[in-house]
Amino acid sequence: MSGAGKLKPLLQEACGPVFPGCALAVHRQGHPWLSLSAGVLGSKDEAPDAAVRPVTAETLYDVASVTKALVTAPLLMRRLAEGRLDLDAPVASRSALLCRLDPRITFRHLAAHRAGLPAWRPFYIDLLLPEDRQPRLVPGDARSAVLEQILRGPLLSPPGDAELYSDLGYMLLGWCLEEESNTPLDRQFQDEIAGPLRLDACFTPLTQVASPRAELAASRIAPTEAYEGRTLARGQVHDDNAFALGGVAGHAGLFATAEAIARLGDELLRARQGQSAILDQAAARAFLNAARPSPPETRIPGYDTPTPGASSAGQHFSPGSFGHLGFTGCSLWCDPERQLSVAFLSNRVHPTRENEAIRAFRPRLHDEIANLTP
Questions:
Q1: pLDDT, tens only, 93-118
Q2: Beta bridge partners of 300
Q3: Could you tell me the pTM of the whole model?
Q4: Which residues contact 140 (CB under 8 A, 6 or more apart)?
Q5: In degrees to the nearest 10, what's the CA dihedral of 197, 203, 209, 212?
Q6: Which segments of 153-302 does DSSP mark as H helices, in order?
Q7: Where does residue 288 rank: exposed (0-12), middle (13-18), buried (19+ CB within 10 A)?
Q8: CA 166 to CA 248: how far, in whole Å?
Q9: Rounded Cα gap, residues 207 and 87, in angstroms
Q10: CA distance 75 to 249
Q11: Chain centre distance of CA 94
């Protein structure tokens, strides 16, 4: 039986219990190998129009924290290759914006989640209007307010001592990239990554089209969740802090198709071999070939690595694999040994984040793909 013949029933079986719908793109040896979709965009109770629209290869998903791996980390690689970034330099000494950050924190600490910063803080509570949950401040002022809170907040551990996954660190890295280039993060991504690779991926997708086409654009975006007074998020980033910051942040905000994510994963694999059109080999290896931490820690700069016996990438991806998960139900895993790039996108938070069935589904899916691609 073909790969599609084995995997399609698995995806269909999960539609409903795990998520409304999903899209899968697998690249092998640098070329598209499989593209599948299943289910519908949304539930009939929460989004009746989305419930009659099937997921297709053109469906855009909010990839949440996969933004860290696909936007912020590759842009950092580019700055490293240009000599404009030193991973081991103290951030405070290189950034006027972050000059009050603890002087022990380096860019490597931030990128590998070892800066001692908290995992998350509800900055959005002060940044969204209580009556309609819309942003209270323009993005620049919101950034200043959040930055001040981060700089004043205590560290949970000394920099470099322990791994603690942190959205805050990637907010700071996104702002460092904007400060260094004097260019918004979404523009950098479009000009340096999405544009050259012709990726169907962007921030704030509803603002990327003219108004007569906005309805058409919305029709291919999978909705996420309505909660705590926010209306159903469709085309607006699900992450509250990123939403309060205007939809563009270093930790979340990207919308993309599965094919776009798989192609960018392919580009990361090519970069390790010196074959990327946009990423330098030495810079890519500084991130992707970084020394693996000792269990239970798993993070390298920009990416996660398989947790032995408990990875969302399943049991068979090689120890040198790298990837990232997104809270909304999306993931990218790349295996250099198999030359595999696997992008799986879903909106498992629709209609509610309480559904965590994807925890068991992800490793099962990756195990099936590994069995098909020895």
A1: 999 999 999 999 999 999 999 999 99
A2: 303
A3: 0.96
A4: none
A5: 140
A6: 167-181, 185-189, 195-197, 211-218, 240-244, 258-272, 281-288
A7: buried
A8: 17
A9: 34
A10: 13
A11: 26
